[in-house]
């Protein structure tokens, strides 16, 4: 399959990672996806080496093909990114010069109806990025009404969480909900006029919430940041691109804590000598209008970067 994924905030990402600063350095793309950012980094810095992780085998196969011209400068591993340290230790790599995480789903996952991520295409209600136990259909049909309400509220910030959870519980008692189309039309019916005030499709928040729960997307993020900080060499860089406010909040808060240092229990002051990183982005970097026009998927992207002290 010929899948295209236009890398988001590419120049900005390379600017912060600055691979040329560290000839021969090891860079980790924790979400290598279809290899867009990775390819540009390897081309830009001819001595850099790259370790790419992804939980999605299909993505890794495509990345392997795309990155083949770089030969043994590239190594790809099938893993969730909160196993980063384990992978680095197994490979015995030594310190890392930079880590990139471009969160969320790839075009490959969104565009293939069978993967069940998109409410724009009818397909099985799956949503697994790979390495996940339950499908979205398992959650929708087997979770309690209260649990569904919590998922929609916490991970989708959906104002109609309770009504939608109740409607699902009622509908599945008659027929299990197994396709994206079934779920989408149910949400459309419930939200109806009420969703006209939102600028997004009525199903967006529920689909986002299920995806986050299926793939436990938020759980691994703090772990990834902490492991990265332990593995980065001095002046090593961390760049994270997130696509919704829940992810961005986690990144922002953890980066802030690590850049302030520990609080002294006696004086209550932060001890600046314990600072681990310096943030390189006071505010998140957003794509320019031209990038959004050219690549609409980039519209919600926010990039934050930091440098290991
Ligand atoms: C937005 S895409 C990355 C696209 C890539 N930067 C490119 O330019 O082609 C995100 C990728 O991260 C992967 N992913 C998401 N969460 C992950 C996790 N916890 N561990 C490993 N991979 C993950 C997804 O499977 C997907 O392939």
Could you characterize the architecture of this molecule?
The chain has helices at residues 10-17, 36-44, 57-67, 84-91, 107-111, 136-142, 145-156, 161-174, 180-191, 204-215, 219-231, 245-260, 289-294; strands at 26-29, 49-54, 74-78, 96-102, 232-242, 277-279, 302-308. By secondary structure, it is an alpha/beta fold. The chain has 13 helices and seven strands. It is globular, with a radius of gyration of 20 Å. Strand 1 (26-29), helix 2 and strand 2 (49-54) form a beta-alpha-beta unit. The model has no long low-confidence stretch (mean pLDDT 93). A seven-stranded mixed β-sheet has the order 3-2-1-4-5-7-6, with helices on both faces. S-adenosylmethionine (SAM) binds at residues 5, 7, 31, 33-37, 53-56, 59, 80-81, 102, 104-106, 129, 220.
List keywords for this structure.
single chain, alpha/beta, 309 residues, 7-stranded mixed sheet, binds S-adenosylmethionine
